[in-house]
Amino acid sequence: MLEKIFKLKENKTDVRTELMAGLTTFMTMAYILAVNPNILSAAGMDKNAVLIATALASFIGTALMALFANYPFALAPGMGLNAYFAYTVVGNMGYSWEIALMAVFVEGLIFIVLSLTNVREAIFNSIPMTLKYAVSGGIGLFIAFIGLQNAKLVVNSDSTLLTYQTFKGETFHSVGVGAILALLGVLIIGILLVKRVKGGILLGILITWVLGILCELAGIYVPDPDAGMYSVIPTAFVSFDFTSLGQTFGKVFQADFAGVRALDFVTVIFAFLFVDIFDTLGTLIGVASKADMLDKDGKLPRIKGALLADAVATSAGAILGTSTTTTFVESASGVTEGGRTGLTAVTTGVLFLLALIFSPLFLTIPSFATAPALIVVGFYMISNVVKIDFDDPSEGLPAFLAIAAMPLAYSISEGIAIGVISYTLLNLITGKARSKKISWLMYVLTVLFILKYVFL
C-alpha cells in the first residue's frame, strides 16, 4: 500500500529510510511547539491553545504536502511571520489578534488562487539556476546560523552585533554548559556521518539530550529560566487536556473591524503575503536542490500541489488560531537523512499529532540538542554553491549577495530579493541579459522588489 501511494522504489527509497527521515525532520522542528506559543502569547493569545493549534496546523499542512505533491517537506507556523504577527500587527499597529488572524486567513485564500492559476509556479520557474543554487547555499548558512543561536554559541554584542560565547561568568553552568554540549553534538553527528551510521543526525540529537540529562543530574548543568535554559529532565510524559483550543479556534471569524483602516489592513495582508510566498519558494528551491528533485530545466515537478498545500495550511492554521503556516527549512534535515517522498512528511505530521499527547516530553528536548542538527544540515546545503560559476561575475556576484543576505538579514525572502535585483540589473546593464534570455517575470519581480524597498 505504501509503495502504491508514495512510489518508494521510483524515488529510490524505502519505508525505514522515510520513517527515520520524518522523525529527524520532526525532531529539528519540534522547537516550534515551544517557541510559537511564547511569541504569540505576547499578542494576548492563550499559550496552551496556541500550542495545540500549532501542532494541528503542522499536521494538516504536512499531510496535505504528502497528499497533494508526495514530497518530504514539512510545514508549521513560520518563524519571523509569527514575530511580525505579535510584535508589529498586534503590538505596534494596535490591532487585536483576531484581526491579525483574519489577515493570515485572507492571505491563505489569496495564495490558493495564486497556486491554482500557476502564478507562484511561474515565479519559481523564472528564477535562474544560479540563483536557485545560491538560495540553497544561503538557506544552509541561515539554518546553521539559527542552530548557532539556539545553542547560544553565537550571542549578542553591543560593539560587533554578534560574538562567540565566552564560556565564563555566572551563566556558565547553564548557557555555557549548553553551548559546550551543542559543540559535542556537532562532533557526535559528524562522527556518525563519517561512519555512515543510518539516522546519524537523529541519534546525535538524542545522544546530546541524554548527555544534558546526565549533566543536570550531576549538577554540572543548572537550569536558569531567566537565561532561557530549562530543565532537560522530563517531569511528565503525557497530557490529554485539549480544551484550551477553544480560546482560539474559530475566533478569526469574530474579529471586530471597528476602527480598522482599510489601507492598513491591506498592507498587513500584503506583508504576510510577500514574506510567505518568497520564504516558501526559497525553501522549496533550497531543499529540492539539495535532494536533486529539480529537473534539467531547474523546475520542480508537482510544485503546484506543494504550493497549494502551503496555501490551504495557512488558512486552516488561522482558523485553528496560529500565524502563517509555511514550508519549513528544517525539512532539509529529513532530506539529508534520505527522505524523498510524502511518507517522510506523513511521519512528521503524525508525530506532530502525537506531540499533542506527549507535549510535556517533546517540549523537554533542549534547543542545544537540536542545534547541532541544524548546523550539520547547513553544511550539507552549502555544498550546492560549487555549482555556481564564480568566474563569471554576472553569475557569481548576485549569487554571493543572495547567499550573504539570508543569514545577515535573517530572512530567506530578503536574500531572494537582493539576488533577483542584482542579477537582473547587472546582466541588463552589461548587455548580457539578452544572451541569457532573462524572463519577463524576472523583470517584473525586480521592479516589485525595488518598490518594496522604496515604499515599505
TrEMBL record:
Which organism does this sequence originate in? Candidatus Eisenbergiella merdigallinarum
The UniProt family comment states: Belongs to the nucleobase:cation symporter-2 (NCS2) (TC 2.A.40) family. Azg-like subfamily.
Membrane topology category:
Multi-pass membrane protein
- Drop me one GO molecular function for this one: purine nucleobase transmembrane transporter activity
Q: Does the keyword Endoplasmic reticulum apply?
A: no
One of the Pfam families matching this protein, by short name = Xan_ur_permease
Q: Where are the transmembrane segments?
A: 20-37, 49-74, 94-119, 131-151, 171-194, 201-222, 265-287, 341-363, 400-426, 438-455
- This one is known as NCS2 family permease
GO terms for cellular component: plasma membrane
Task: State the UniProt keywords alphabetically.
Answer: Cell membrane, Membrane, Transmembrane, Transmembrane helix, Transport
- What main location does UniProt list? membrane
Cellular localization per UniProt: Cell membrane
